[in-house]
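Journal club prep — side note

Before the paper discussion, L.F. wants everyone to see what a predicted structure for a comparable chain looks like in token form. Sequence:
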Amino acid sequence: MATLPVPPPALPPKLVATDLDGTLLRSDGTLSSRTRAALAAAEGAGIRVVLVTGRPPRSVPALLESTGPHVVIAANGAAVHAPSGAVAQTSPIPRLTAARLVENLRAAIPGVSFAVEYDAAHGHETTYPSWSFQDGSVELVGAAEDILAESPGRPLLKVLAHHPTLPLDDFYARARRIAGTSAETTHSTGMSLVEFSAPRVTKATTLIAWSGRLGIGSYEIAAFGDMPNDLPMLNAVGSSYAMANAHPDVLAAARHHAPSNDEDGVAQVLEGFVDTLAHRTPWWAPVLRAGEGSAEGTL
């Protein structure tokens, strides 16, 4: 049975931030025509839309072809892209920090393999799963330590670690303990894949800093997500929505639940926001009635 849509709040947000995979996109990775139309309608109604994803910057051009022009916060907050796709800012991991992290993880967790994401390229070890490297961007193959040493001019945005046998919860707990405060540690796929960003760089920190420069407070933002890497963002905004298909931790943390990604849950909530704006009585309407047709006559 389909999930009932969520009633919109009395006051719609000024900005909507939404994750992609498992949230805005359907399970097959596509964007429905309904969702694309809802994004455009929200923007048309004056609600800013920001796409916030763990995907790397190299995926942004194809993403914007599908969604239309929107600001994109990529790599779990490490990069911000303008609606044109151009990189507006990056928050890279210090290269020495990344090298020490790789060294410590490799020593403590035998069998781990690594990949790295730069501003427009990636590198990976031969034992690292290749399913995330199918877009034709530049590949740097070899030991992670060598890749880090050979690419000094590129902003390093993420380090990824994969283990072929350890359960995700165990692998994540051990990796997070080893990284400590040297990196931001999260996961987003449900597989034994852990992601590292620069310290204090998350979807939340970048979103709040960017929206603040626009004069939009965190309480004026609605955010949608489904996985643990969305938790900082969901906890930082005024209205948080977990998709019906979300990770249990996300369902527990969010203030609201939306229908699943395959039910166009984000679109359903956005349509409610737009409808509320279209039918909301302007603040000056009661004054007009009191003044018998003249707002000036009541002031």
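L.F.'s comment for the group: Residues 121 and 138 are 5 Å apart (CA to CA). Keep this in mind when we get to the figures.
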